[in-house]
Amino acid sequence: MARPKNRQLVYGVHGVIGNELVIMPVDRARFLALTWKAMVKAKTWGALKTLAPPKAYREILAFQESPRSIRAGHPFYYFDMTPVRRMLTGSDWKAVEVELSLGLNSGPLPASGPIAKALAAEAGTSLVSQYVTAFEVGVVPLDVTGVLDARLSSQVQP
C-alpha cells in the first residue's frame, strides 16, 4: 500500500453548506484552496485553465453540459458552478453510520471498512486512518475549531 508523501491532516469548519467539520490531508487542502482561488479570480475559461491546478480544471470542465464547446475567451462565472466535490451515496453513508454505531476500536480502521474507503476515495490513494477518541464539544459551530485546536494542542508532548 502506497503512503501519501505528506501525512499531515488539517481541519476547519466549512460554513457554505452548513457548519461542518472538515478534516483532510494537507495536500488536498492546498489543492482545494488553489482551486477555489482560481475559480473566484478567473473571469474567462482561459484564465481558469491558467490559474487552476490541471486536475481541478479537468474536474470543473467535466461538470459542464457541453465541455467541448467551451473556449478560452468564454466568460467563467464561479457562482454558476456546480460544486466540485465528491459526495457519498445514501447507501455509503448508511454503511458509515452502521460502522460508527458498532463502535470503533482504537487503532487503524479496517481498510475495507466504509469510513476508510470514503476517506481513501477522497484522497485518491490508499490511506491509513485511525480512530483515536471521541468527546463532546458542546459549543456553537463557529467555536468548534478553537475547541479542537486547544484539545489537540493539549495532547502534544512538549
Distance between the termini: 32 Å
How would a crystallographer describe the biggest sheet?
2 strands, antiparallel
DSSP helix count? Answer: 6
Total beta strand runs = 4
The average pLDDT value, as a whole number, equals 76
Helix percentage range: 40-55%
Gyration radius over CA: 19 Å
Shape: elongated
**Sequence of strands across the biggest β-sheet:** 1-2
Q: In percent terms, what proportion of residues is strand?
A: 5-15%
Low-confidence stretches: none
* Secondary-structure element string: EEHHHHEHEH
What structural class do helix, strand and pairing data support? mainly alpha
Structure overview:
The chain is mostly helical and 158 residues long. 41% of the residues lie in helices and 10% in strands. The protein has six helices and four strands; from the N terminus they run E-E-H-H-H-H-E-H-E-H. The chain has helices spanning 26-41, 45-51, 54-62, 90-101, 114-123, 144-154; strands spanning 9-14, 20-25, 107-108, 130-131. A two-stranded antiparallel sheet has the order 1-2. A two-stranded antiparallel ribbon has the order 3-4. The longest helix is centred in the first third of the chain and has 16 residues, at 26-41. It is elongated. The mean pLDDT is 76.
